[in-house]
């Protein structure tokens, strides 16, 4: 990792659900003693200003939002450890939904730049608003056991953030075996 630079928890959100997940992850990384910047991935955000990226986007049409994929394209030229999270309406429980979740992650990753090495990519459920979905979509969602409202699984998000923090902390440990100092 590039010493002295913060970790970016970057996000692209459509209605605020992904921002909430990103802020939660950033908070957990800070609690682990890491220097963190949490910000939307807009065109002015320079990927080189960070030692690692934890990037998330809302999923629309089985793809990340354009600002997130644009950031990934710019980031691919500057190798850094990278974790990804997607926020969608599918919540991973039960065999059918687990299969759908795996399929969604694969489809999303097809839109990532070639050669981007991810440490991990998780799909989290977001806030589901079915008022703008046609009757067939609502019926399908209900058939899967879905319901409108906030579907975010905060304990699962916290567990994943703790895993990311642990991996980042190990990467920041000097080769001599001594622990790198942490700010807290």
UniProtKB/TrEMBL annotation:
Domain of life: Bacteria
Domain Flavodoxin positions: 8-139
InterPro entries in alphabetical order: Flavodoxin_dom (IPR026816), Flavoprotein-like_sf (IPR029039)
Keywords assigned by UniProt, alphabetized: Oxidoreductase
Transmembrane portions of the chain: none
SUPFAM superfamilies linked: Flavoproteins (SSF52218)
Pfam families xrefs: Flavodoxin_5
E.C. number: 1.3.5.3
Molecular function in Gene Ontology: oxidoreductase activity
Name of protein: Menaquinone-dependent protoporphyrinogen oxidase
Origin species: Modestobacter marinus
Lineage: Bacteria, Bacillati, Actinomycetota, Actinomycetes, Geodermatophilales
């Amino acid at each position: 990792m590039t010493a002295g630079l913060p970790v970016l928890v970057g996000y692209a959100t459509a209605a605020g659900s992904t921002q909430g997940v990103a802020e939660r992850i950033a908070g957990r990384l800070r609690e682990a003693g890491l220097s963190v910047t949490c910000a939307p991935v807009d065109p002015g955000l320079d990927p080189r200003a960070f030692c690692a990226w934890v990037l998330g986007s809302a999923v629309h049409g089985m793809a990340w939002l354009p600002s997130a994929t644009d950031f990934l394209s710019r980031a691919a030229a500057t190798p850094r450890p990278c974790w990804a999270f997607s926020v969608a309406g599918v919540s991973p429980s039960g065999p059918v939904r687990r299969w759908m979740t795996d399929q969604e992650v694969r489809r999303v990753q097809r839109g990532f730049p070639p050669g981007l090495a991810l440490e991990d990519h998780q799909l989290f459920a977001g806030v589901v608003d079915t008022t703008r979905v046609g009757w067939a979509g609502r019926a399908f969602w209900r058939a899967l056991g879905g319901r409108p409202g906030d579907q975010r699984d905060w304990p699962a998000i916290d567990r994943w953030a703790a895993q990311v923090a642990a991996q980042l902390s190990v990467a920041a440990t000097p080769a001599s075996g001594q622990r790198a100092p942490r700010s807290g």
